[in-house]
């Protein structure tokens, strides 16, 4: 079959060009319309972001006021009533002296928010860019929440023991509270968690340059505070550690792992570890040590809310080495302990947790190496400083006719009585030189020394020839 070939005539080409040109004009007009539409929507988008940001800021301020009111109500309606003699009959005797444990440092938290922080937040109502600096300026004050959270398990223990007593029921009735005291004792924990959520929302609806740098720093500081509070609560749950745990330095990380224990000199091979049942261990990484603990599972109401750990062993970081990859499982890494030739195969819950721990362990080991290098250099510099004056003194001693060198004095000290003899020799030599000088001076002036002086000079020359 003969195929048909299409040849473009000049007329056809001209027609096609007109069609293409017309289509391109349509596309250009469509793009221009789209750009105009986007430019029209841009101010609307900015306005909607501002509305959302102001809504979050208003929520931050309003919830802060409500939080301060609730703290005041609890302190006045419960804590102060524990000192009210008219309420003593409703209180068990053992509860009367438990006020500080039950409420912790809630009064301190209230004073901070009522007298300082709430007014600072209210000043930000018309200036959202000030929120970041507001949190950063009071960053250290928020550490009081760590103290409150550390006390929380003890507080809950008292509440569970006495929650049904008539005193708490009467206080709740007077305050017309729908919820019991335990719900209000949880408010500080909830509030410190709420801050980071609100800061995230503010950051989400803020444009670059509207205080976002400080807002990010404030968010990071609150997240770091939450981590610190969480870590401190785990640390206070450690039982059985004999030493001062504060001497281990700052806690860097903590978490649960599967652990296998072996020895470098033993016959156990890595593949054999898989046949052994792992130990469930909670690891605490400090600046100066890594601690292994076993979690205790206790029974009773609220027992699962707060952890409890039994201390097992502690490895000094200066004696620790790591192997980052263990064959057969990318979640495992190896901790070597030189003091006891021990190997700990550690399995993380996932690869991300493993990489985080390896990163922090490496950082600690590098810092330790740098400190040891700096100390060695400092010691060497001190040795050089001490050696240099000794060399100078030795050279001076050799060039001076009146000096007994340090080596001679050192040997005389070892010999005991020779020290005094060395001192006498110095004095005799000085006297001889002075006598010789006087004789020379007398001869120059035409004078001769007396017979006694000549005899003395003779005796001196006999003892130590000049």
TrEMBL record:
Please list the GO biological process terms of this entry.
Answer: dendrite development; intracellular signal transduction
What is the species listed in this Swiss-Prot or TrEMBL entry? Mus musculus molossinus
Report the locations given in the UniProt record.
Answer: Cytoplasm
Query: What is this protein called in UniProt?
Result: Dbl protein
Cellular component terms, GO, for this chain's entry?
cytoplasm
Show the GO MF annotations: guanyl-nucleotide exchange factor activity
Domain spans labelled DH: 52-232
Gene behind this protein: Mcf2
Keyword terms: Cytoplasm, Guanine-nucleotide releasing factor, Phosphoprotein
PH domain span: 244-366
């Amino acid at each position: 079959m003969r195929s048909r070939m299409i040849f473009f005539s000049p007329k056809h080409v001209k027609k096609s060009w007109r069609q293409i040109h017309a289509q391109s004009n349509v596309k250009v007009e469509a793009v221009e319309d789209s750009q105009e539409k986007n430019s029209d929507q841009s101010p609307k988008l900015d306005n909607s972001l501002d509305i959302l940001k102001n809504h979050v800021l208003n929520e931050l301020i309003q919830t802060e006021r409500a939080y301060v009111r609730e703290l005041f109500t609890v302190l006045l309606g419960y804590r102060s009533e524990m000192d009210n003699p008219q309420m003593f009959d409703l209180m068990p005797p053992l509860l009367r002296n438990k006020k500080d444990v039950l409420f912790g440092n809630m009064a301190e938290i209230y004073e901070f928010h009522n007298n300082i922080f709430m007014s600072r937040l209210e000043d930000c109502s018309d200036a959202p860019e000030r929120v970041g600096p507001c949190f950063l300026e009071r960053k250290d004050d928020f550490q009081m929440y760590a103290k409150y959270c550390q006390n929380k398990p003890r507080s809950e223990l008292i509440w569970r023991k006495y929650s049904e007593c008539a005193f708490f029921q009467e206080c709740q009735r007077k305050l017309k509270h729908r919820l019991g005291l335990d719900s209000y004792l949880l408010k500080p924990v909830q509030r410190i968690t709420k801050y980071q959520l609100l800061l995230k929302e503010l950051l989400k609806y803020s444009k670059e340059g509207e205080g976002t740098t400080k807002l990010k720093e404030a968010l990071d500081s609150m997240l770091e505070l939450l981590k610190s509070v969480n870590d401190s609560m785990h640390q206070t749950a450690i039982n059985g550690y004999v030493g001062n745990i504060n001497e281990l330095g700052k806690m860097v990380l903590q978490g649960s792992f599967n652990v296998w224990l072996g020895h470098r000199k033993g016959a156990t091979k890595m593949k054999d570890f898989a046949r052994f049942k792992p130990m469930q261990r909670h690891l605490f990484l400090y600046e100066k040590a890594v601690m292994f603990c076993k979690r205790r599972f206790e029974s009773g109401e609220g027992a699962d809310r707060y952890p409890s750990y039994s201390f097992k062993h502690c490895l000094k970081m200066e004696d620790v080495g790591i192997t980052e990859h263990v064959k057969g499982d990318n979640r495992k890494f190896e901790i070597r302990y030189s003091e006891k030739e021990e190997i700990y195969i550690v399995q993380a819950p996932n690869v991300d947790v493993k990489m985080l721990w390896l990163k922090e362990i490496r950082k600690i080991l590098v810092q330790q190496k740098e400190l040891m290098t700096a100390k060695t250099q400092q010691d060497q510099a001190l040795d050089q400083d001490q050696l240099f004056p000794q060399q100078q003194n030795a050279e001076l001693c050799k060039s001076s006719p009146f000096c007994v060198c340090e080596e001679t004095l050192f040997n005389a000290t070892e010999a005991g009585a020779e020290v005094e003899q060395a001192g006498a020799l110095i004095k005799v030599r000085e006297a001889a030189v002075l006598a010789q000088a006087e004789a020379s001076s007398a001869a120059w002036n035409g004078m001769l020394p007396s017979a006694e002086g000549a005899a003395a000079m003779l005796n001196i020359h006999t003892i130590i020839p000049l």
